Amino acid sequence: MNQVTYLRIYRIVSMAIRFYLQVALFQRRNRGKWTPVVEQRWNELVTRQAKQYKELALKLGGLMIKLGQFLSTRADIMPPSFLAELEGLTDRVPSVPRKDIIDVLEQEWNVEHGNYLDELSDQAIASASIGEVFKGRLKNGTEVAVKVQRPGTDRIIRADFQAMRIVIWLAKKFTPFTKQVDFDQLYVEMTETIGAELNFVRELQNGRAFADRFAEMSGVHIPVYYDEYTTRRVLVMEWIEGARITDISFIEEHGLDRHEISERLFILFLEQVLYGGQFHADPHGGNILLKPDGTIVLIDFGMIGTISERDSQAILLIAEGILFKNYEQVLDGLEDLRFLLPNADRDLLADAVERLVAAYESNELMQMDSFVVERLLQDMQDIVRTQPVQLPAEFAFFGRATSIFVGVLHVLDPKVDLFALARPRVLEWASTKREGKGIFGKEDVFRWILNSTGPARAFPKKLINFLDEPERIRHYLENKEGREREHQRNLQSRMFAGIFSLLSFSGISLSVWFWHEPFLWVSSVFFVGSLWAFRAIR
Prior knowledge:
Elements: H1 5-29, H2 36-60, H3 63-71, H4 80-86, H5 98-109, E1 117-120, E2 126-127, E3 131-138, E4 143-149, H6 153-174, H7 183-195, H8 200-213, E5 220-221, E6 234-238, E7 243-244, H9 248-253, H10 258-274, E8 277-280, E9 288-290, E10 296-298, E11 304-307, H11 309-323, H12 327-336, H13 346-361, H14 371-386, H15 396-412, H16 418-437, H17 442-452, H18 454-514, H19 517-536
Parallel strand pairs: 5-10
Antiparallel strand pairs: 1-3, 2-3, 3-4, 4-6, 7-9, 8-11, 9-10
Helix pairs in contact: 1-2, 1-6, 1-18, 2-3, 2-4, 6-7, 10-15, 10-16, 11-12, 11-16, 12-13, 13-14, 18-19
């Protein structure tokens, strides 16, 4: 039943409408009285919604799981309790019957699978919503991994994207998220990035590009792919004997150095970012394998993102600013990346970045029971939500990839110092960028002098900021509360009118389907009236 297009769209859209109504009603009932008790009830509501989303995503699979994984990294638009509930949502679904997999193989190869394979495992080695992986043996004795697209996947993903178009339309019309997310561009990014997973030929091409790019990197291996057996729905690649990189017992059993592995893995990811081009957009533990000799194997290049040359230059500004504690430069880089809108409070944001970096360097972020850290992270999320900060769509999957990757690193080595690992690489990368342009320019020399003296120049400002902190916080909270009240009043009226339009339109559709004329007339009247109300409300 979950594969029926109409039912999938209905379940996804109806859940979104239910969530929007619950939020609107909650805000209306508690307008102007945000107390600790109300905040607790709000957290209970969004946690319940996250659980319902997770339950539906696990039932439906497909795009719902990937969207949930994406939302779990979006602290800029999602409440903390929602994020916590979705954390760890994995793309694991029951295997389909082996006979159905054989049918796909033979449809794609136009011959019996035995013509190419001597053996194919009875059970899938790995199973996800898009494809299943089996172990096989070619006629020449080579062991291979055979990835086969699940039957009906094209139809399921198309239905999910149709549902997402409706949900995004609702979000654009009735939620405040449009201040922080370009939904139209995000939808395009989703279709290009996730849709590319449906074509295994693209995955082969991506894998080959990564193999060429990292051929000289010691201790890193990209599997060999076989063109002659690969089609749009079948991918054949080298079989790798190893374990997930987060399998600590495997690492200890083979006497491997967790710290050295984490350093090498970090450099592998950093190289993808610093030099632009493609980056692996789904670097979870299952897509990073470890051989018994410690070799890191990167697999599954279905989800790939791209960083432009211009954006890599902006990343250089941010990295230099963080390393040299020049937080104004960090904000300049974020503006170049289109993360900050012109009317952002730069002093407030610079202070937030500085506090976050200081907390990381002092290891406070590792003390998860610390009240100071909890308050700091809450402040970061509040600032991101209330300031004109947006996530450009092209960075949506980069943020998700970074979050996943950092999680893998901390499983490997909880004490890993990302700044210490990044500093020499960033400086080396910065010098190569400038060498490519010729001799250092005056602007480069001046900026590096300013960066090098950053800590000394920052001391007077830090003292002033410390003395002004209570007053700034008071103004910030007053402005935040006023903006929220005004926006909620404008939003809720339009939300009710718009949702009523959608519900009455659904009534029209059902009455046409079942040819119930009285219900058709009633639904039409309500639809026209709600549309008029929606346009009239400003």
